[in-house]
Design a protein that fits this description.
With 526 residues, the chain is of the alpha/beta class. The protein has 18 helices and 16 strands. The chain folds into three domains: 5-278, Aldolase class I (TIM Barrel, Alpha-Beta Barrel); 296-387, no CATH class; 396-525, Double Stranded RNA Binding Domain, CATH 3.30.160.270. Helices cover 40% and strands 20% of the residues.
């Protein structure tokens, strides 16, 4: 099994994506996680371009990495500067990384129009820069920028740029599809021709502007590239970079190459989610292999087949990449979906039990009204427990009132909620203010219940989403409210639907609190 070398550029190229920014602390955390996962090279940034990158390289020097080599990224020297006096080259050396990656021009369009120098001068610049860094003890990776576009314009000159870097000591020559416009079969043909003329190890760096970055990378490996550059989750400028979270399992599980140890591959999903969390980006559900929907089944026919043999609708075992099989509950659900989910909840329910069909019927009725249980498994579990007789009514509502007061255009509105609830034979009346009516209602409800259920101080709302379901009805439209709640250990989602956003929020809040109390009682009784 041939060993390949993974080169991660999330911390540099990935941060060029919209809305993505990492602090120096974030970058150190991600680098350590990538190192533990088995990444060979981690590109930390461009020294001298910003304070965060400089801080990262300073901290990286005192951080122990077990496997990965840290790389500093920059360009070849400028035409007007001797290499030893070039500020960019000096910054690369000052980063004190074992690896330096520099990019140079391959495409004559850039040489003549952007740099406005002769083709011969460009070759000299490449040679000088690589040779100087090599003499200073660096492993030099040469990124041939716009290589495929340059090769298509003038293949002879494109190969000359590679030879200039190779003969000056570059350890790896990386062929870059910088504009992301080269299609996979073109990449394959060009890499094949390069291999005939270049003996230095080759790498591949693709962008996703044509939606084929992963496919192009896989084709390049088939033709002989041994270093694969990309980012976690495909983050990057414009349409993003090649997604390592797709490339790695494709290469290792389907193409027979070795990227990381099998045990490390089992952490792929957690690495993907870890990076998205630090990037403050919502983790895409439909990502191959690592997305929450990658092994999710919704149709009743599919679920029935998967329960008999997972191979019927799954191309790999989910746990291989650290994922899990999920069965979604919706109006498409059949008895198989319900039985699968009920088993996950640890509830024993016979297939012939009337409760199974009753649950299926209620799901279809509720989803017709506007509910969605795909992302509200807390509300779904409460539904199941009601049908199986395991649900307790923890409190009853006598009434609540929410008021909003705004004294002028300039002043902020103030919200207040008054609530009366009954627990057993006792009643409690409380009031609370909040940042908006929902927050006020939530505060008042907790305040009323904590006397009876002090464990409620363990939970807090972490997300609140409102979706208008039938926009044609304008302000009279139904809304769906989805609430995420955490207790320090786990999180759960609950849902409520109503034409009134406060009423919909109330339903989701009641489910959220009831779910926690049910779980707390079950845990306490064990």
């Amino acid at each position: 099994m041939q060993q390949l070398f993974l080169y991660d550029t999330t911390l540099r190229d990935g941060t060029q994506g919209e809305e993505i920014s990492f602090s120096a602390e974030d970058k150190i955390k991600i680098a350590k996680r990538l190192d533990a996962f088995g990444i060979s090279y981690i590109e930390g940034g461009w020294p001298g371009s910003n304070p965060k990158d400089m801080e990262f390289f300073e901290r990286a020097r005192t951080t122990q990495f077990q496997h990965a080599k840290i790389a500093a990224f920059g360009s070849t020297r400028r035409a007007k500067n001797p290499v030893e006096k070039d500020a960019n080259i000096r910054a690369l050396l000052d980063a004190q990384t074992p690896v330096v990656t520099i990019f140079g021009k391959t495409w004559l369009l850039h040489v003549k129009e952007a740099l406005q120098i002769s083709p011969e001068m460009n070759l000299t610049i490449i040679s000088d820069s690589v040779e100087y860094l090599k003499k200073h003890g660096k492993e030099v990776i040469y990124d041939a920028e716009h290589f495929f576009d340059g090769y298509k314009q003038d293949s002879v000159y494109a190969l000359k740029t590679l030879n200039a870097a190779a003969q000056s000591g570059a350890a790896t020559l990386v062929l870059c599809d910088t504009n992301g416009g080269t299609l996979p079969w073109e990449v394959a043909d060009i890499v094949r021709e390069v291999k005939k003329n270049i003996s230095t190890p080759l790498g591949i760096h693709t962008h996703n502007d044509s939606g084929t970055a992963v496919a192009s990378s896989l084709m390049a490996v088939r033709e002989g590239c041994v270093q694969i550059q990309g980012t976690i989750n495909g983050y990057g400028e414009r349409c993003g970079n090649a997604n390592l979270c797709t490339i790695i399992p494709d290469l290792q599980l389907k193409m027979g190459y070795r990227c990381v140890a099998d045990k490390q591959l089992e952490h792929l999903t957690s690495v993907s989610r870890y990076v998205s969390e630090l990037a403050n980006m919502k983790h895409q559900k439909n990502l191959p292999f690592v997305g929450e929907s990658a092994f999710a089944h919704k149709g009743g026919v599919h679920v029935s087949a998967v329960m008999k043999s997972a191979l019927t609708y799954e191309h790999i075992v989910p746990e291989t990449v650290g994922s899990v099989r999920r069965v979604l509950i919706s109006d498409l659900s059949g008895r198989s979906n319900v039985l699968f989910k009920v088993k996950e909840l640890g509830v024993e329910l016979d297939d012939r039990s009337p409760a199974v069909q009753n649950i299926v019927d209620e799901i279809k009725d509720m989803e017709h009204y506007g509910y969605s249980y795909e992302d509200a498994e807390g509300s779904f579990e409460l539904m199941v427990k009601r049908h199986t007789g395991e649900m307790k009514q923890f409190f009853d509502l006598e009434r609540f009132r929410v008021s909003i007061q705004k004294d002028s255009l300039e002043k902020e509105a103030r919200s207040e909620a008054l609530i009366k609830i009954r627990v057993g034979d006792e009643t409690e009346i409380t009031a609370a203010e909040g940042d908006g009516p929902i927050n006020a209602l939530d505060s008042a409800l907790r305040k009323a219940l904590e006397k009876f259920y002090p464990e409620l101080n363990q939970i807090h709302l972490t997300d609140y989403k409102v979706r208008v379901l039938d926009t044609q009805n304008a302000t009279a439209a139904k809304v769906r409210v989805l609430i995420e709640t955490k207790n320090g250990e786990t999180s759960w989602n609950t849902v409520g639907v109503s034409p009134d956003v406060v009423e919909a929020s109330w339903k989701a809040l009641v489910d959220s609190i009831s779910y926690h109390l049910l779980k707390h009682r079950t845990k306490k009784n064990k």
